[in-house]
Design a protein that fits this description.
Elements lengths: L25 H11 L15 E5 L3 H12 L3 E3 L9 E3 L2 E3 L13 E11 L10 E14 L2 E12 L5 E3 L3 H29 L2 H14 L9 H45 L4 E5 L3 E5 L8 E6 L3 E7 L3 E5 L5 E5 L3 E3 L2
Antiparallel strand pairs: 1-7, 2-3, 4-5, 5-6, 6-7, 7-8, 9-12, 9-15, 10-11, 12-13, 13-14
Helix pairs in contact: 1-3, 1-5, 2-3, 3-5
């Protein structure tokens, strides 16, 4: 790829760090923060902003496992080449990358790269072919406190110029990490509840007791049946209460996830513009010498699908899609 180009280090950006408080138990506090806080870290579309940063109430090893799974995934969320796509496929895990400055702090660092990406969405002023790179940094802050950084950048092949993400890429990648942490917490909670009410564990406990003390005289047959039935009913009631409580918390987390996804979709809301030139060429690619799809006339309305520094990707009224120069368009009044 030629000369390596780096984007500004995290130390020179304004990191946002949030804590979750007032949630019952550290386990569920971490789940709520995953989905309630994610939209707060989007970068400014005008300035490029700071890297995504968040403190999680989760053990370091759990976060490392979740981040490693996402970093080894085949796609990068929150960006795409064409309008009908939801993600950038063909990504690969990398142990290191020269597209970011060398990390000298503590923690584990992961990278994911996608080469030959054509003007990927949600990178400021991207208008060429290049590489999309995502960096994840996981730092241990305490027994159940972990800090996570995520940065995404697009580097052009031709000019080796870097374009920072507008924040959508980092938010979506964090959403994937959050889902894995949520699933892990749920499995751990279910396993703990099952162990607490396990008949095997209770039988083992009774066996230990009987070996240390002589067995009591045999009671009448009717009394132990009633007593055992009462104990089983109480255990079933406690277990049902635990299941109901976890189901309620899971439903709340799912609602928060739906809200996050709805807010994320708003970043891709279309807008309508009008052709102001007497004749405007709709191009197959965002280049002056690209193939002409069709010629548009003055006053025609088109739907904006994506933007770069000098080009709009649009859909015409007849359904054809292509790229048109900014200078040929005007915003609807």
């Amino acid at each position: 790829m030629g000369e390596a180009v780096v984007v500004g280090p995290v130390a020179r950006t304004k990191n946002s760090v949030l804590k979750s408080t007032g949630v019952r138990g550290a386990c569920w506090a971490s789940l709520l923060i995953l989905f309630l806080c994610a939209p707060c870290f989007s970068r400014s579309r005008d300035t490029g902003g700071a890297s995504f940063s968040i403190d999680l109430d989760s053990p370091f090893d759990d976060v490392v496992t979740a981040v490693s799974d996402v970093a080894h995934g085949p796609s990068i969320k929150g960006t795409f080449e064409y309008r009908d796509e939801e993600q950038l496929n063909g990504a690969q895990f990398a142990e290191k990358s020269s597209l970011f400055p060398a990390w000298t702090g503590s923690g584990k660092v992961f990278f994911k790269l996608r080469n030959k990406a054509l003007s990927p969405s949600h990178f400021l002023n991207s208008n060429d072919v290049g590489t999309v790179a995502v960096r994840y940094i996981v730092q241990e802050r305490g027994p159940n406190q972990t800090r996570l950084f995520i940065d995404a950048v697009f580097i052009e092949n031709a000019r080796h110029h870097g374009h920072p993400s507008d924040g959508y890429v980092e938010t979506c990648e964090f959403g994937e990490i959050g889902k894995r942490l949520k699933d892990r917490k749920l499995l751990q909670t279910q396993a703990a509840a099952g162990q607490q009410f396990s008949p095997v564990a209770e039988s083992s406990s009774r066996a230990d007791t009987t070996t240390s003390e002589p067995p009591p005289p045999a009671p009448p047959v009717s009394k132990p049946i009633v007593a055992q039935t009462t104990v089983d009913a109480a255990q079933n009631t406690d277990l049902q209460h635990a299941i109901d409580e976890q189901s309620s918390l899971l439903a709340a987390d799912s609602a928060n996830l739906d809200r996050l996804e709805a807010q994320a979709r708003q970043l891709r809301t279309s807008e309508f513009v009008r052709v102001k030139s007497d004749r405007a060429e709709l191009k197959a690619l965002p280049y002056a010498h690209a193939r002409v799809v069709e010629a548009l006339t003055k006053g025609q309305e088109v739907t904006v699908l994506a933007k770069s520094s000098y080009w709009y990707q649009v859909r015409a009224e007849d359904g054809k899609e292509g790229w048109i120069s900014h200078a040929s368009l005007e915003v609807q009044p």
